């Protein structure tokens, strides 16, 4: 153990021990010259039989944290590797762990837990959306520090890993039994973002019930079993987080975060009120149909009644504070009158309003059969122009907003193809037609490129793909779409340079052309930064980071001089 009062590396004076575990001790230290406190984590070689494995984990932890910058994460300041121990100097987080809070106070109020959960979702979303996603894998109360201002900090990255897309499994099991997801025990593929969602779910379960999932009875019961006053909405969220099959959980933290922010709206009582309201609308609609059946003399009145009901449903959707409820209402309006475009377009705008087209929103379309012939055929026949616009909107929803990265282009292509067919003879939609054409070309490339690489027929594909990307940017420059779409076009180009630069070179794309494109995007980002929202700024920062790597890849592939600051 480090001696109290000793000075390490000539600058960090050990003040006292503030924590210890089976493998390490943590001390409070101060840099007397800077008069700033630090936390020093010590792992002694002599008391750890598996020190090399542990050291590898610590090096991974420090390397990861050095790359990350987020208010809910600690910063690594220094790493000292001596003959006797391995020391990590990091931010000193003044506060207590949530584990200690549970020990002292028991179950925590659900309002507090929901607030902490939203903060943890923010930091997990940051980790999962890095260029190389980071999977934390050890969420639990002892790894969460609560500061005096109510904010939480996620600590201890010893089990985190960078997600390797081509891996079929993790190389080693790490995590805490009870909190860890089933796939962390091996045999179910590699851990991914859904693993962290499971671990967060078990953590929330412990915090609101006071029952530790790593202790008997080792079950995640509905939280209302322990306290019937707890929110049934929060119970549903935790149950979905902790499902055994990853496919049955929330697929992204953003989906989870949305439900957590509206957990009161998921209450059983709220769902019953919603179903009752829909039954009322259905009864009114049915009444109008009965009136219509009464004879031609009543048809005009029935039509007016149906129109009134349609407008009423639209109005209820517009004033609804809940996005999911609003989207459901828009789909009810579609079911009432499939030929009118208002509800279709309003659904799209509401669905992508938060920057994500979720599984729940997609289900609303699929369950009502909107993507099959029943509704769309009527829409296309009676209102072809608005039908084409909706197909274009849904193509965008999948391409730029869909939660599943691996499926977004393939699902978008059919919508863009449908829009393109109707735009073909519409001069007013020439720009949209060209965009649809490019999305179909790009989607076809993504669909075929892997198979073409395997059978060796991918030559010339990349040059055409690069041309489609640059043409898409030029079209968007001439007539910019939403800010988020513009940013995601930029991110797509920069990411694909990193991934395909060698192939671009083989297909005759010059390094100067690629570098000029990256420089042009950087200039555009500088202009967009003025007055950018926090979400847009986050995306801009990520794109800049990717561009930095892209410049280096171009330099390596074409043996050119690296741009200033890119060495």
Describe the main β-sheet briefly: 6 strands, antiparallel
Rounded mean pLDDT score: 81
Structural class comes to alpha+beta
Number of helices: 19
Radius of gyration: 28 Å
Written account of the structure:
There is one protein chain. By secondary structure, the protein is α+β, with helices and mostly antiparallel strands. Helix 17 runs antiparallel to helix 18. About 4% of the residues have low confidence. The strands form three sheets. A six-stranded antiparallel beta sheet has the order 1-2-3-4-6-5, covered by helices on one side. Strands 7-9-10 form a three-stranded antiparallel beta sheet. A two-stranded antiparallel sheet has the order 8-11. 56% of the residues lie in helices and 10% in strands. It is globular and about 80 Å long.
Could you give a quick summary of the protein structure above?
The protein is an alpha+beta fold and 567 residues long. The protein is built from 19 helices and eleven strands.
Task: List its salient traits.
567 residues; alpha+beta; 6-stranded antiparallel beta sheet
What is the element layout, followed by pairings?
Layout: E1 7-8, E2 12-20, E3 25-31, E4 36-44, H1 51-67, E5 76-81, E6 85-91, E7 95-97, H2 98-105, H3 110-128, E8 134-135, E9 144-147, E10 152-154, E11 161-162, H4 193-209, H5 232-241, H6 253-261, H7 268-293, H8 299-319, H9 323-336, H10 342-351, H11 359-367, H12 373-382, H13 384-401, H14 408-423, H15 430-455, H16 461-478, H17 483-506, H18 511-528, H19 534-558
Antiparallel strand pairs: 1-2, 2-3, 3-4, 4-6, 5-6, 7-9, 8-11, 9-10
